[in-house]
Amino acid sequence: MSDWTTAPNSESSQRLLVISPVKDEAAYLPTTIESFAAQTKRPDLWVIVNDGSSDDTGAIADAAAAKYDWIRVLHRPAGTQRRVGPGVIEAFYAGLDSVPDWRTYDFICKTDGDLAFQPRYFEILLGRFRDNPRLGSASGKVFTPNETGVFEEERIGPGFSFGCAKLYRRTCFEEIGGFVRQVMWDGIDCHRSRMLGWEVVSFDDPELAIQHFRRMGSSFQSIYHGRRRWGRGQYFMGTHPLYMLGIFGYRMFEKPYFLGGLNILIGYVHAALTGAPRYDDPEFRKFLRNWQLEELKHRILGRTTQKVPQASGANSGKSVE
To answer: Where are the extended beta strands (E) located within the chain?
Structure first.
């Protein structure tokens, strides 16, 4: 395994390390690389972890590293099976461990390899962290293409950062113990951050809009498989049954209508009936359920428990071209 140590960037006090686990992303990775290269604030180091791809992903990443001195590539053995959740986080940590001085960075970002960002994405988002010392994790809103090619917003509460593009204040990342190697890693981290007094936000700002070329909660097998996996993850995390019913009701109005929400519920119920393991932290599960019940109460009353600052000129977040 290669080890990379980078010299401090004297022009910036917000040193940014990005780790991107990628597997078979040859169709989208060039767009992501172009998007990073066009940033007004580039990462100080971007480690692309080629997780045993069987297509040209590795070659594309190597070409980018040859062109840009702030990009490095870590190749993992070929033939590894795609495992959403644990596999992604194992690849992330392989990339993080390859940077011996990662604790000298101020911010750590985990991104996918099938994204496109607005040119000022990192500049603006890092500014939000600078303005709010209690902001622990953040992202913009994520948009995915529908059947006609129009990018529509992925629905998520304002108190969550998106797993495909999580930016973390490094001190917060360390306090929560990093990511768990399970399907719901990108939910557990947000709740644990809240539990420790940090704020988590996905900002509704057109300059922070993220194009994601693969819909969240889908799967390389089928969207129904992905939704059932999502439901199993909710059970693992410790989600309250009433909140799970709320998720079912909320997601049934998304495509595939009714069946998507139903498969989430099926995944949760099946995990409960078969005695699937749960996240082994009773204090966390207690905090989570209390938060979820409060959130349900406030949603019924027509408001959210978290007041999230909106940027001036923020869009309605319904679609982007």
So the answer is: 16-22, 45-51, 71-76, 107-111, 115-117, 135-140, 142-145, 151-153, 165-169, 199-203, 210-212, 319-320
CA distance 272 to 260: 19
Whether pLDDT at 313 is above 70: no
Q: Which of 220, 214, 217 is nearest to 32 (CA)?
A: 214
CB atoms within 10 A of CB 34: 11
Residues 124, 31: contact at Cβ < 8 Å?
A: no
Give domain 16-212's CATH number out of 3.40.50.300, 1.10.287.470, 3.40.1390.10, 3.90.550.10.
Answer: 3.90.550.10
- Report pLDDT for 147: 84
Q: What is the mean pLDDT of residues 148-164?
A: 93
CA angle 8, 11, 14 (to 5 degrees): 70
Domain ranges for the chain: 16-212, 223-300
What average pLDDT does range 56-71 have in this prediction? 99
Read off the pTM.
0.88
